[in-house]
Design goal:
By secondary structure, this protein is of the alpha/beta class. It has nine helices and ten strands. A five-stranded parallel β-sheet has the order 7-6-8-9-10, with helices on both faces. Strands 3-5-4 form a three-stranded antiparallel β-sheet. Strands 1-2 form a two-stranded antiparallel ribbon.
Length: 214
């Protein structure tokens, strides 16, 4: 149920970017269609434009351009998080709502849960934040290193740690896909990271062998 002014609208809606992909039009054109009332759309309290999916289907019928004829969308980038901090996990969930149309999220509280989730789907990016003892952190990183070396799918790992010299201890021992960081995962970091991922979408289609050739 979406509140549009004084009217409550029950509908399936999508963002302007997704609507432009489906219609094969620019984002500016989609906005003009909304302004001209050829598509039903409105803005949320946060200023994000939402487009009614049913109005998109009707517009396509008007143009005799079925929705199936649009180009096949690329798979959404999948990102898994292992967060020990419950507050951070909750904050990530709230931020993730804004990105759910363009990213897949998977949030786990332990490394065991994270490994188990790999049996269903290996993410494109794995982000871990932990304050475990240094020996456990090293063991996790080396396990991930072995996994990446043996996996056919390229997976990028960001390991956020409170151990300031952890990267130095493991220097020269790790796959380049693993990045060790001492930067805390906070609200600003997450937003900057998501914006960075979507600004460089080509990483989704690059495979491990191609990366190592460059």
């Amino acid at each position: 149920m979406i509140n549009n002014g004084n009217q409550k609208i029950k509908s399936y809606t999508i963002g302007t970017g997704k609507a432009s992909e489906i219609l094969g039009l620019s984002i500016t054109s989609v906005k003009l269609l909304v302004d001209n009332q050829e598509l039903i759309g409105w803005k949320t309290q946060g200023g994000h434009r939402r487009i009614d999916m049913e109005s998109i289907r009707k517009y396509q019928k008007k143009l005799k351009k079925p929705i199936e004829s649009s180009s096949k969308p690329k798979p959404l980038p999948s990102i898994s998080f292992m967060l020990e901090d419950t507050l951070m996990a909750n904050e990530l969930k709230s931020i993730g709502v804004q990105w759910q149309e363009i990213m897949e999220f998977n949030i786990k509280k332990s490394i065991a849960e994270t490994y188990l989730s790999f049996s269903q789907k290996i993410p494109d990016i794995l982000i871990i934040q932990t304050s475990m003892p240094v020996a456990q952190q090293i063991a996790i990183i080396l396990d991930l290193n072995n996994f990446i070396d043996s996996s056919e799918k390229y997976i990028s790992v960001i390991f956020s740690t409170n151990i300031t010299d952890l990267a130095l201890r493991l220097q020269g021992k790790l796959n380049s896909a693993i990045q060790i960081s001492n930067d805390p995962l906070n609200h600003e970091w997450l937003r900057a990271f998501f914006n960075g991922v979507m600004a460089s979408p080509e990483w989704r289609t690059v495979h491990k062998k191609e990366i190592y050739q460059h």
